[in-house]
Amino acid sequence: MNKLRFYAARTLRDEAALQALSVPQADLLADLDGKSVALVGNARSLADSAQGAAIDAADVVIRINRAPQPGPGSHGTRTDWLALAVRLSDEDLARIAPRRILWMSPKRKRLGYRIAQGDGFYLHPLADHQALKDRLAAPPTTGAMMIDLLLRSGLSSLTLHGFDFFASQSLSGRRTADQVPHDFGAEAAWVADLRRSDGRLSLI
Q1: What is the tens place of the pLDDT at every residue in 146-203?
Q2: How far apart are CA 35 and CA 154, in angstroms?
Q3: Which of 63, 108, 157, 196 has the fewest CB atoms found within 10 Å of its own CB?
Q4: Could you state, in order of their start, the residue ranges of all structural domains in the chain?
Q5: 113 confidence band (pLDDT: 50, 70, 90)
């Protein structure tokens, strides 16, 4: 799809045309069969940890949005997939250097042409976002959407790093929990339920 057609599809909310740019969800999930996955959140508390080696030891390392990495000791060094719901500058994309980008936000007007044309690009279906929003009774975070998506795969393990449900706020911004539209209590309870029902999920 050329740039003009892309921006026309984005403006007109032509979801079918945009989805045609995405790898099928089944193919995305098949790439995780039998693999260990580290999903790295942006909690400030992670910067005080020594989880970097464990993160880099995973078969697939997935980071979220601006993916701050204060140091390898706490955050590791590798980014295989980047789950996005915000615009990123070319400089940030070059810094993070993901092999695959997943656009998780229902806000298609934020999606850039360069990202949508990338190798292995994935566009998260609007219906999946809405289903999780209904489950949590609030717009889900990018991290919650990724947990929901990843556990549908045949991965061997999913370890959450840097998830404290905004207890220490985010490394990538200064907003407080009251200034964002998410329900972190609901997400924490949901993750606790998932951990009890799915032994592949762990939270460090």
Answers
A1: 999 999 999 999 999 999 998 887 766 666 656 677 899 999 999 999 999 999 999 9
A2: 8
A3: 196
A4: 3-199
A5: very high
Q: What is the rounded distance in angstroms from the CA atom of residue 128 to the CA atom of residue 102?
A: 14
Structure tokens of 148?
A: 């929901």
User: Does the pLDDT value for residue 96 go beyond 80?
Assistant: yes
Tokens of 9: 């599809």
> Do residues 96 and 79 make contact, with C-beta atoms less than 8 angstroms apart?
yes
188 within 8 A of 69, measured Cβ to Cβ: no
The chain-wide mean pLDDT, for the chain, equals 94
Report whether 186 contacts 136 (CB < 8 A).
Answer: yes
How confident is the model at residue 167, as a pLDDT?
80
Instruction: Give the CATH architecture of domain 3-199.
Output: Alpha-Beta Complex (3.90)
Say what the pLDDT of residue 168 is: 80
* Residue count of the chain: 204
For residue 41, what pLDDT is reported? 95
* Interatomic CA distance for residues 195 and 75, integer angstroms: 23
Q: How far apart are CA 143 and CA 102, in angstroms?
A: 12
